[in-house]
Structures are given as structure tokens and as C-alpha cells.
């Protein structure tokens, strides 16, 4: 226990030092130092708290933030709000909020097993699985298999006398998530949508070709089919839940995908006893997440930043651009920025999994390390474009007014740095 | 330059005439084999044909549909283990692709596709029979080959350096009836020495997904085979963006 106390103190000191010296927010380095002193530190720090985990390919940072806001009605909540979503980040988040009875942790989809075992969460929310950085990540089908194993093991835990059962909240619109989650003893199904379907044509259980009809899907070869959801979006501004719940929800965050994330957050919050009516006003307060969705004013330009890391994310981002085109006025110019550094994934072939046709009519500018990849892609897609060497060139090229920016991970960070760490 | 289709080792069936009014590009099982932006090759071939005034019909064939025999170009993409196995079984049972190759159609198979069109490949220790369009066999390598690949193309094909991205666990072993597509300068390819394979009008490559985005000349070679004309007969088109992309990528990975 003394080791754990020492380790916890070290985490906080290291994180503070790292922030002071401007080397980042310290959530990774702090956790790494703490875990070196006490390898079971995450387990120790999670003990006695009510923990929720959020995982999936896309939307986990946003959903974590929304669920944190909802659980805020119960008191302080520990959360890895900077998106440091591996055990080092979780350790730092818990160490820095010693008095928070609740914790909401965003979990990298490859770390679900470890973090589940160490934190013994009360709720696990599972959003979606799609291709993401395939050159270094596990293929998405294997990842679903791995999840299924991990979640199936919850049955033993549920059978242990005295153990608090872990409840799973899962997206029934995603066949891979459904297949993985259905191994768990208790699942609350949420219709969180699936715009991107290219990774779930084939039944993960038997390999047959899934049949789809509207939102419904079913396997002709086995018993896997879309479960009936308990929570769903009744319309653009209303979340439907069990027992006839009809909760109006108005978000500042754009896009249908964020309304779906709100449904998941409300469903997970309800498992902690937070009523949707109490949670909804908290969700409405969330305006931007680590710079995402933020609008930054610079030289008369209103620059809106959208982060999109993989094909599914790009489709959702285009949906957001469409929504905010003012009726009657020319649509705002759109800057696309692509890098392929290690954390982005070195491979740009996913650019061809996205259809850019919905950008026609916008003035499209292209930048980033891999702007030529994007140029070739847009030429093939017959979307007119201009290549610029840097973000500042793009800014100079567009007239005062709105500019939409869609960028992948390091490209997004570069632009944020350029804009002075806009929040 | 149009090479003899018989070199692929398959019997030619002169009665199976292909369409002469327009170019038919068949995309084989996009629902199973489209892991790494494979659609790109289809879009690029179609666009480059259209830029030469050629009408194009693109025909995606879902895995529960028969593969038509009358296509001019067939594209076989990459897939994960389960879909790849299913695709191989369907392709063999269907027979349409083999028939089309016998009739002189061109084939471009990328990534898992090169394994699929060989004699067999391995998944989870099981040997899976392939479509047998190229004289090659695949097994698993010691490690995954991930990264940029550059190769010097077989001089008989008259192409500039091959450039692209590879990501595969398999290794290919070519038999005498298949020619290596390129000699590896950077990357792994088939075995660290050669990359891809070709025979007749069939090409397989480990360059995955939109391999043609960086290799417009390879796209034109496939088009020229399908159109039965020499590569030099295709009018040039504006390739300034693909050329800048090639130059940027080659500069990034070739030793100086
Ligand atoms: Zn099935």
C-alpha cells in the first residue's frame, strides 16, 4: 500500500512537471513512472470506485466526455479527458482525482482486456469497430474475436458470489460489436448507427453474407441478427429509452454520430442511476473536445476543426460539413489535411475507401505531408481541388468567413499547434 | 508488346468473344475483398480509359453472384482471412474467372489477391486451394511485411519503377510458368528478392489497395492488354499529380 501511495504521488508530480515544462499534458509520462514503481497501481487506484469504460474505433473520446458530463450529476468524476487511452493514461487520471467516486475511462480497443481486468468496471460501453491504421493494428475481424473472448469471460465473474457484475452497453447496429458483446452475460443494446458498413459484410460467427434491410441486419447462415435496441434516436432531437422514456437532447456538437454518442452516454449513465432528464442538460454544455469541433477565429476566418482518423470517421465528418452549410449562401471552403506518420498509420490506401463526392460544390484545399496522395485521390473522384504547402497558405488563400478543416491525427495536432492550442 | 495469353498456361477459347463496344471492368467480390482501398484500382482504370474516349462499364460482382465471362479486365482485391477463404472457394466453384482468362481477359490481383489466384495459400495452418491463374504457391512468412515497396519491373513490360505499400503475412513462391513482376529494391514482396508475378495478361502484386494510384503506367499496361493494343498506342494523359506523388514517395524511401 505504501508503494501504491508513493507511486500515486510520483504520477502527480511527473504529470505536473511535464505540463510545466510544456512537454504535453503529462498523462502518459506520469502513469508510466507510477506503474514502474507499482505495477498494480491501476488496480489499486480503481478499487472502490464506480468505473465505466468506453471503447470502439470511433467516437470514444466524445462519448467519454459526454458520459463524464452525465455522471457529473453524482459528484466528481475521474476521466482521461486528453485521450490518453492506454493504462498509463488511466493510471494518471485516477491518481489525479483521488476523491472521485466515479471514473469514466476511454480505452484503446486493443487494451480492453487489460483495463477490464484491472478496473473491474460497472459498465463497459462499446461503440463500433472498423478499419483503422491497418498497417499496425490487428485486422478488425480479429479484434472482434478478441473482444468476444474478453467479454465472454465476464460470465465467470458474474457467477462469482459477491462480485459486482459488469454490464455491457453495446451498439446493435454494428454486427462486429454485436457479435463480440453478445458473449457477455448482460447487454443493454443501443441503436447507435453504422454509416460505414464495409467491414461487416460477412458474418463474424459463420462467414455467411449478412443480409441488410434498412437498419435491420441478419445472418442467413446462423442465429446472429440485430438485437432489439433498448435505446435509440427517435428523431434528431429525441432519445428513446426503456419504459417509454422520450428525452429531448440538444447538443452543441455537430452531426448525427454525436447524437448517437449521446444515446450511448445516456444509456450508460442510466446504469449508474442518472436519469436522462438530469443528464441531458449536462450533455448540452459540451462544446468541444480537445479542440475537436472547436471554432477558432483567426484573421477574420472562423475555422472549425474536425478530426477524422479513418474512413468511417471521414464519412461522419462530411456529414457535419453538410449540416453547417448555410442555406442560400455558398458553402464554406473545406481544407483537408493528411499525414501518415507512425501514430496516423503509415498507409494512405484508406483514402480510396472514402467517397469525396459530397464535397463537390465546396472549394476544396489540400495540405499535409501526404497532400499528393490526396490530390491523386480527388482527381480520380472528380472533385476540383487546390494543393497548398501549409495550413497558413490555406488560411491566406480563402476569403474571410468560414473555413471547415478536416484532418487526421497528427495533421490535426499540427493545425491546433498553429492556432495556439485552441480549445 | 501484347503478350500471348497462352503464356498463362490456360487453354484459349476463341469462341468466347469479348465485348467490342465498350470496356468491361469486373470487380470480383468487393464485399469480401476490399480491405485496403481496393476500389481505387477500379476507379483509376475507368478514369484512364475514359480519358482516352473509351466507354467503360464497371461491374462489381457480389460473392453470391456468378462471375461473368465476358469482362475485359478483372480486379481481385485484398481481404482478411475469413473473407479470403470464402472468396477462394466461390471463385473455384464459379470458374468464370478462369474462363475469362482463357478468352484473353486481363487480371490485376493485389495483396491477398495474388495469393488467391495462385495454386494454394495458407490460413491458420490450413492449405486453401486458389483460383490457379498463376503458377505460384503461398505460405506464411516469419513476420508481417509492412511498409513501402519499390521494385524494378521486368524489362519486358516496359514500365518505370514500381512503388506502393505492402502489408501481408504471406510469401509467394513462383513456379516456372510465372515471371516475377519486379526485382525488390525496397521492401519484401514475394520473398525479399522478387515482387509479384505475371504471365500472359495476368498480374499479381503485393502492393495493396490502390496500387495503380502510384503506378499509372501499370494501369495503362493492363488497359493496353484489355484493348489488344501496344502500350505505346495509348494517347498520353495529364499525369502531373500521379507523377508528383511518385516522385515524393520514391524520394522518401529510396536510399540516396
Ligand atoms: Zn452467421
UniProtKB/TrEMBL annotation, chain A:
Enzyme class of the recorded protein, top EC level: ligase
Annotated Lipid II isoglutaminyl synthase (glutamine-hydrolyzing) subunit MurT C-terminal domain residues: 307-411
Reactions this protein catalyses: beta-D-GlcNAc-(1->4)-Mur2Ac(oyl-L-Ala-gamma-D-Glu-L-Lys-D-Ala-D-Ala)-di-trans,octa-cis-undecaprenyl diphosphate + ATP = beta-D-GlcNAc-(1->4)-Mur2Ac(oyl-L-Ala-gamma-D-O-P-Glu-L-Lys-D-Ala-D-Ala)-di-trans,octa-cis-undecaprenyl diphosphate + ADP; beta-D-GlcNAc-(1->4)-Mur2Ac(oyl-L-Ala-gamma-D-O-P-Glu-L-Lys-D-Ala-D-Ala)-di-trans,octa-cis-undecaprenyl diphosphate + NH4(+) = beta-D-GlcNAc-(1->4)-Mur2Ac(oyl-L-Ala-D-isoglutaminyl-L-Lys-D-Ala-D-Ala)-di-trans,octa-cis-undecaprenyl diphosphate + phosphate + H(+); beta-D-GlcNAc-(1->4)-Mur2Ac(oyl-L-Ala-gamma-D-Glu-L-Lys-D-Ala-D-Ala)-di-trans,octa-cis-undecaprenyl diphosphate + L-glutamine + ATP + H2O = beta-D-GlcNAc-(1->4)-Mur2Ac(oyl-L-Ala-D-isoglutaminyl-L-Lys-D-Ala-D-Ala)-di-trans,octa-cis-undecaprenyl diphosphate + L-glutamate + ADP + phosphate + H(+)
Keyword terms: ATP-binding, Cell shape, Cell wall biogenesis/degradation, Ligase, Metal-binding, Nucleotide-binding, Peptidoglycan synthesis, Zinc
Domain Mur ligase central span(s) in chain numbering: 54-269
Subunit structure: Forms a heterodimer with GatD.
Name this polypeptide is given: Lipid II isoglutaminyl synthase (glutamine-hydrolyzing) subunit MurT
Gene (name only): murT
Automatic annotation (TrEMBL), chain B:
Known catalytic reactions: beta-D-GlcNAc-(1->4)-Mur2Ac(oyl-L-Ala-gamma-D-Glu-L-Lys-D-Ala-D-Ala)-di-trans,octa-cis-undecaprenyl diphosphate + L-glutamine + ATP + H2O = beta-D-GlcNAc-(1->4)-Mur2Ac(oyl-L-Ala-D-isoglutaminyl-L-Lys-D-Ala-D-Ala)-di-trans,octa-cis-undecaprenyl diphosphate + L-glutamate + ADP + phosphate + H(+); L-glutamine + H2O = L-glutamate + NH4(+)
Biological process annotations from GO: cell wall organization; cobalamin biosynthetic process; peptidoglycan biosynthetic process; regulation of cell shape
Domain of life: Bacteria
InterPro entries on file: Class_I_gatase-like, CobQ_GATase1, GATase_3, Lipid_II_synth_GatD
Gene3D superfamilies for the chain: 3.40.50.880
Ligand binding (substrate): 144
Pathway linked to the protein: Cell wall biogenesis; peptidoglycan biosynthesis
Keywords: Cell shape, Cell wall biogenesis/degradation, Glutamine amidotransferase, Hydrolase, Ligase, Peptidoglycan synthesis
EC numbers on record: 6.3.5.13, 3.5.1.2
Active-site feature positions: 111, 208
Residue intervals of the CobB/CobQ-like glutamine amidotransferase domain: 24-215
Keyword Hydrolase: yes
Any one Gene Ontology molecular-function term assigned to this protein's record: carbon-nitrogen ligase activity on lipid II
HAMAP family: Lipid_II_synth_GatD
Family membership noted in the UniProt record: Belongs to the CobB/CobQ family. GatD subfamily.
Physiological role: The lipid II isoglutaminyl synthase complex catalyzes the formation of alpha-D-isoglutamine in the cell wall lipid II stem peptide. The GatD subunit catalyzes the hydrolysis of glutamine to glutamate and ammonia. The resulting ammonia molecule is channeled to the active site of MurT.
Subunit structure: Forms a heterodimer with MurT.
Name this polypeptide is given: Lipid II isoglutaminyl synthase (glutamine-hydrolyzing) subunit GatD
Organism (species): Actinocatenispora comari
Classification of source organism: Bacteria, Bacillati, Actinomycetota, Actinomycetes, Micromonosporales
Encoding gene (name): gatD
Amino acid at each position: 500500500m505504501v508503494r501504491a501511495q508513493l507511486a500515486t504521488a510520483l504520477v502527480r508530480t511527473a504529470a505536473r512537471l511535464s505540463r510545466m515544462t510544456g512537454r504535453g499534458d503529462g498523462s502518459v509520462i506520469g502513469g508510466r513512472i507510477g506503474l514502474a514503481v507499482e505495477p498494480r497501481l491501476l488496480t489499486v487506484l480503481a478499487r472502490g470506485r464506480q468505473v465505466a469504460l468506453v471503447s470502439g474505433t470511433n467516437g470514444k473520446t466524445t462519448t467519454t466526455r459526454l458520459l463524464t458530463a452525465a455522471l457529473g450529476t453524482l459528484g466528481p468524476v475521474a476521466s482521461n479527458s486528453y485521450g490518453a487511452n492506454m493504462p498509463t493514461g488511466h493510471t494518471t487520471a485516477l491518481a489525479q482525482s483521488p476523491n472521485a467516486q466515479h471514473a469514466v475511462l476511454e480505452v484503446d480497443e486493443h487494451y480492453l482486456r487489460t483495463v477490464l481486468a484491472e478496473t473491474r468496471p460497472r459498465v463497459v460501453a462499446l461503440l463500433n469497430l472498423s478499419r483503422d491504421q491497418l498497417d499496425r493494428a490487428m485486422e478488425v475481424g480479429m479484434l472482434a474475436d478478441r473482444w468476444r473472448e474478453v467479454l465472454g469471460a465476464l460470465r465467470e465473474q458474474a457467477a462469482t458470489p459477491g462480485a459486482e457484475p459488469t454490464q455491457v452497453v453495446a451498439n446493435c447496429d454494428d454486427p462486429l460489436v454485436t457479435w463480440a458483446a453478445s458473449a457477455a452475460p448482460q447487454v443493454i443494446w443501443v441503436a447507435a448507427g453504422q454509416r460505414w458498413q464495409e467491414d461487416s459484410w460477412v458474418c463474424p460467427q459463420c462467414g455467411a453474407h449478412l443480409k441488410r434491410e434498412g437498419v435491420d441486419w441478419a445472418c442467413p447462415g446462423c442465429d446472429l441478427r440485430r438485437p432489439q435496441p433498448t435505446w435509440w434516436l427517435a428523431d434528431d432531437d429525441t432519445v428513446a429509452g426503456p419504459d417509454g422514456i422520450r428525452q429531448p437532447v440538444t447538443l452543441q456538437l455537430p452531426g448525427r454520430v454525436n447524437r448517437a454518442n449521446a444515446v450511448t452516454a445516456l444509456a450508460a449513465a442510466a446504469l449508474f442511476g442518472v436519469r436522462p432528464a438530469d443528464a441531458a442538460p449536462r450533455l448540452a454544455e459540451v462544446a468541444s473536445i480537445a479542440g475537436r469541433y472547436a471554432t477558432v477565429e483567426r484573421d477574420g476566418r472562423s475555422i472549425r476543426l474536425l478530426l477524422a482518423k479513418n474512413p468511417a470517421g471521414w464519412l461522419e465528418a462530411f456529414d457535419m460539413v453538410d449540416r453547417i452549410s448555410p442555406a442560400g449562401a455558398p458553402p464554406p471552403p473545406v481544407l483537408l489535411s493528411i499525414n501518415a506518420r507512425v501514430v496516423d498509420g503509415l498507409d494512405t490506401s484508406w483514402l480510396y475507401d472514402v467517397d469525396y463526392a459530397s464535397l463537390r460544390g465546396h472549394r476544396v484545399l489540400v495540405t499535409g505531408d501526404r497532400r499528393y496522395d490526396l490530390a491523386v485521390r480527388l482527381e480520380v473522384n472528380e472533385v476540383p481541388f487546390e494543393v497548398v504547402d501549409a495550413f497558413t497558405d490555406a488560411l491566406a488563400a480563402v476569403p474571410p468567413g468560414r473555413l471547415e478543416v478536416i484532418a487526421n491525427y497528427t495533421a490535426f495536432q499540427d493545425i491546433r499547434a498553429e492556432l495556439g492550442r485552441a480549445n | 508488346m501484347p503478350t500471348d495469353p497462352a503464356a498463362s498456361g490456360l487453354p484459349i477459347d476463341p469462341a468466347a468473344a469479348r465485348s467490342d463496344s465498350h470496356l468491361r471492368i469486373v470487380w470480383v467480390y468487393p464485399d469480401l475483398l476490399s480491405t485496403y482501398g481496393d476500389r481505387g484500382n477500379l476507379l483509376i482504370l475507368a478514369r484512364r480509359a475514359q480519358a482516352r474516349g473509351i466507354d467503360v462499364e464497371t461491374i462489381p460482382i457480389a460473392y453470391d453472384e456468378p462471375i461473368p465471362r465476358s469482362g475485359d479486365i478483372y480486379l481481385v482485391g485484398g481481404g482478411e482471412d475469413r473473407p479470403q477463404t470464402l472468396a477462394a472457394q466461390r471463385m473455384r466453384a464459379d470458374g468464370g474467372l478462369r474462363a475469362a482468362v482463357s478468352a484473353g481477359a486481363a487480371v490485376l490481383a493485389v495483396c491477398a489477391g495474388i495469393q488467391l489466384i495462385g495454386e494454394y495459400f495458407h490460413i491458420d495452418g490450413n492449405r486453401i486451394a486458389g483460383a490457379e491463374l498463376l503458377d505460384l504457391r503461398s505460405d506464411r512468412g516469419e513476420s508481417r511485411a509492412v511498409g513501402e515497396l519499390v521494385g524494378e519491373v521486368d524489362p519486358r513490360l516496359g514500365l518505370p519503377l514500381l512503388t506502393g505499400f505492402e502489408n501481408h503475412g504471406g510469401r509467394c513462391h513462383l513456379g516456372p510458368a510465372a515471371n516475377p513482376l519486379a526485382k525488390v529494391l525496397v521492401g519484401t514482396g514475394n520473398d525479399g528478392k522478387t515482387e509479384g508475378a505475371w504471365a500472359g495478361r495476368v498480374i499479381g502484386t503485393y502492393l495493396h489497395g490502390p496500387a495503380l494510384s502510384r503506378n499509372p503506367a501499370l494501369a495503362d499496361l493492363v488497359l493496353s492488354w484489355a484493348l489488344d493494343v501496344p502500350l505505346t498506342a495509348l494517347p498520353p494523359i495529364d499525369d502531373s499529380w500521379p507523377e508528383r506523388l511518385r516522385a515524393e514517395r520514391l524520394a522518401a524511401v529510396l536510399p540516396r
